[in-house]
Amino acid sequence: MSTKAELDLQVKALPEKPGVYQYFDKSDTIIYVGKAKNLKKRVSSYFTKVHDNAKTRILVRKIVRIETIVVDTELDALLLENNLIKKYQPRYNIQLKDDKTYPWICVKNEPFPRVFSTRRMIKDGSKYFGPYPSGKVMHTILNLIKEMYPLRTFNLDLAANKIEEKRYKVCLEYHIGNCKGPCVGHEKKTGYDDYIQQIEEILKGNFRAVIQELKKNMATFASTYQFEEAQAIKEKLTVLENYQHKSTVVSPTIAACDVITAIQDESSAFVNYLVVKDGAIIHGFTLEVKKKLDESLSEIIGYVLPEMRERYHSLSKEVLVQEDLDLEIPEVQLFVPQRGDKKNLIDLSLRNCTFFRLEKLKQEKIVSPEKHTERILAQIQKDFRTPELPVHIECFDNSNIQGTHPVSACVVFKNAKPSKADYRHFNVKTVEGPDDFATMEEAVYRRYRRLLDEDQPLPQLIVIDGGKGQLSSALSALERLGLRGKIVIVGIAKRLEEIFFPGDQYPIYIDKRSESLKVIQYLRNEAHRFGITHHRNRRSKTALQSELLQIEGIGPKTQEALIKRFKSVQGVRAASVEDLKAEIGEAKAQIVRRYFAD
Fold first, then answer.
1. Which own/partner pairs from 424-432 qualify as long-range (CB within 8 Å, at least 24 positions apart)?
2. Are 405 and 541 in contact (CB under 8 A)?
3. Interval 244-298: pLDDT, tens
4. What is the DSSP letter of 13?
5. Using CA atoms, how far apart are residues 274 and 259, in angstroms rounded to an integer?
6. Residues 243, 245, 251, 252: is their CA dihedral positive or negative?
7. DSSP 3-state assignment of 287?
């Protein structure tokens, strides 16, 4: 039986239950892991649908074996998928980029635990909180903990038998009051563990629970006349409340929620995650996700959200998202706010995504300009539907004032940058009067007639500065040359940056923040500048010729010599007799001087 027949048989036998599926290639390596509410429907869709994305088509061709794991709930499927992706890192799954450079706060798994910052996660049972993109934020929290709780800092094995054997001596931290000396038995484990429990709640953002517990203890001490102990707790409360007030306050009406948003380009998604508790943002993290199969927003957030909630120990029942998603997480409500404080949170999160992406792009441009260019070209290819990477793009623009001196400009971009040596302008020869459409047709025809005659490479994309009329005229020129359908051609209308494709009734609108649109706008503006400059030069030259022809005794050759030497009427008017004599002789120099003197 062939591999395809075996796969078909296996897919037909799959259960209609929630679970996780794994695809293997011919080397028996896991190349993709996915989750499903209904395993049979989800897996069969890979083999029955026509996939627009090339990577998905390649993935399907490489599948030779399928394994599935049935679970009880969708949440179980979500968690299992996440664990398998982390473990096997399949080639065609999206991956969270390595964040090991960000620091974490570690609560060490040991007697009398230490609390410290680290960039290494060791699987020894210790608890890690973070990561913290800002070291300043992390150190502020550590200083808060140090101010409130007398924790040990030295790396000693404080097993009970070693303390009883009196192996250690107190250090300077004990003498200055920062530690109560658990190493010599001056502090009991139960009291120290209470500190650690409160610290973990603070690191999770549960300030309210810690404050309530401290107030309860303070009242207990006060009622039994232990005023020194009550005062110590009051000082802790003051420190904790002051820190909480420094947090980014959103609204006291928002008790607890998570916020997650994302923006995408061709190869990556940039995801921001915020944790809000007691009306304040207590955690914020932005990361890059490398896309593998042109994943949707739902798929990306469905992968990242459980990971973030696990990292930050979030138990919020409400998650704010930017749009309706095809995503279900048991016991969690996804909500799209339309106004108010929650909508402001979405806007803030999206701004974080945008700034993070811009920062990454700047770094990429510095470190790897070729990769930066390839990514932009790939985005243009996707947005403008070019079959090949558009390394060569040309743009046409017409210039005339009240129908006089009509000219066309053609500018050329190669690898998304101006190639000024290839710029061309066209003085219109066959069009009478202000006919913008006929002017465009003539310029496009002459440009590509020349390229064909000289066997020069043609562009992958042509951009026409104008709407449907100019685009239709340019298309007629390509049809006369037999190039229609062989080169992608679009029109761009100035007012709303509408992109017109031939034959489409309605324009498309590319995201204003898209780099591909920015390149096209730059191309169009450059064509306009180049065309206007040439048009002005022609008008100036004509005005100069008209003026000089009025001088009796000055013929066309003398006129041409003056234009070449002095460039403008003002230049000729300001020239000295000696300069004029050097160019056109003494007799004609005197004629010119008398004319301008009069």
1. 425/530, 425/531, 425/534, 427/538, 431/406
2. no
3. 554 444 565 677 889 999 988 777 889 989 888 766 677 778 888 888 777 888 8
4. T
5. 5
6. positive
7. strand
Q: How far apart are CA 170 and CA 69, in angstroms?
A: 55
Edge-to-edge strand ranges of the sheet holding 127-129:
115-118, 104-107, 127-129
Q: In this predicted structure, what is the pLDDT of residue 248?
A: 47
Tell me: pLDDT of 335 over 80: yes
Q: Distance between CA atoms of 194 and 197, rounded to whole angstroms? A: 5
- The b/e string for 183-215 (b: 16+ C-beta within 10 A; e otherwise) is beeebeeeebeebbebbbbbbbbbbeebbeebe
3-state secondary structure 417-459: EECHHHCEEEECCCCCCCCHHHHHHHHHHHHHHHHHHCCCCCC
Tell me how far apart the alpha carbons of residues 193 and 141 are, in angstroms, rounded to a whole number: 19
Strand 333-335 and strand 392-401: the pairing is unpaired
Q: If phi over 0 gives left and psi between -120 and 50 gives alpha, with beta otherwise, what is residue 403? A: left
Token look-up 């979405």 returns: 346
Radius of gyration of the chain (CA): 36
Domains of the chain, start order: 3-93 (3.40.1440.10), 104-205 (no CATH), 256-365 (3.30.420), 380-537 (3.30.420.340), 550-597 (1.10.150.20)
Looking up tokens 């909508």 gives 343
Q: What is the dihedral of CA 576, 581, 587, 590, to 10 degrees?
A: 0
- Is the previous residue joined to 131 through a cis bond, with omega within 30 degrees of 0? yes
- pLDDT over 90 percentage in the chain: 9
Of residues 582, 465, 578, 469, the one with CA closest to residue 525: 465
Residues 469-527 have pLDDT tens digits of 888 999 999 999 999 888 999 988 876 678 888 878 777 877 776 778 888 888 888 88
Please report where in the chains the tokens 């992968």 appear, as a residue. 303
User: Which one, of 83, 89, 71, lies nearest residue 30 by Cα?
Assistant: 89
Write down the pLDDT at residue 403: 47
| Separation between Cα atoms, residue 137 and residue 275, nearest integer Å | 14
Which position has the token pair 């009622």? 223
Quick one: tokens of 577?
């007799």
CA distance 345 to 274: 9
Closest listed residue to residue 149, CA positions, set 194, 215, 213, 211: 194
Structure tokens at 237: 């409360």
Residue 353: both structure tokens together: 């995504």
465, β-bridge pairs: 492
| Cβ neighbours for 163, distance < 8 A, ≥ 6 positions apart | 182, 183, 184, 185
